[in-house]
Amino acid sequence: MPDILGDGYEQLTLPLGPDPDGEGEVTATLVRYQPSVYPGGESAPDRAVIYVHGFTDYFFQQHLAEHFAAQGYRFFALDLRKCGRSRQPEQTPHFVTDLTYYDAELEEALRVVRSEVGGGILLVAHSTGGLVLPLWLDRLNRRPGGTGGAGIQGLILNSPWFDLQGPSILRSLGTVAVDTVGRVRSRAVIPGQSLDTYGMSLHRNANGQWEYDLDWKPLAGFPVTFGWLRAVRRGHARLHRGLDVGVPSLILRSKDTRWAPAYDPAVDTADAVLDVKQIARWAGCLGDRTTIVPITGARHDVFLSTPEVLEVAFRELDLWLDWLDGHSRTL
To answer: What is the pLDDT of residue 101?
Structure first.
């Protein structure tokens, strides 16, 4: 059916059945971008991208879809359960107590896309999605045929969330507390997490240049629950033990992190959400070939950076896509 993004965008609801966390029936939403004409007047390409968002997020980045289309990819994006287009009024935004629950919509999205596209699939994810996808790929890669047998050729992570912020002792003690509370009071909200610094940097009605639905992506973010953060920390621990995603990876991140209690123009040119040193530290845990590109002046969502920085990010992306094409032909 037609999608909220307008001409060229369609959406498909993916029924997932009863919620393992007891919040009714859950669905995910697969968005498809189909321009009227692809580059060179060619028919729809025989390869595709599947994009997965992060926490307090959903797919709205039309410029990203259009860029991949210009590079010869069909573009799909997945709004995960309880996120964006997929969330029902009675459901806790983004709430899961186990990241493996997302396997259901990831595998269904892959099935749908492979039914339409005969060539390779490129996976792209941002922030928390950049943790969810590698964990899933590691599990997928252990099956007969592995990741390649599932049609996946590469992985692009945009500021993936590979560890909790802060000093190691606080991360350790905090994780113990989160694990304890998260088991018995999974929907309890962690205090002191509401901060609109990043949102104010992005949204057009604040200080930024991007337009999106504030009901689906509020400036200060959705409340962080103990159960959800417990699931994330268990995912971090699995990542830190080492994964094998089975395909080459590109990691794009900002060169700098800047924390600020309120909006400051300095956060327009840095990651105001994650510690980029932690991204660099744990990037080697993905297995296979990994290319890490720090981009000066990039925001947390590298593809929502200021125009000059976004141009650099797209140039780095295209260089890697060219390399991946050559690499795939030599295998």
So the answer is: 98
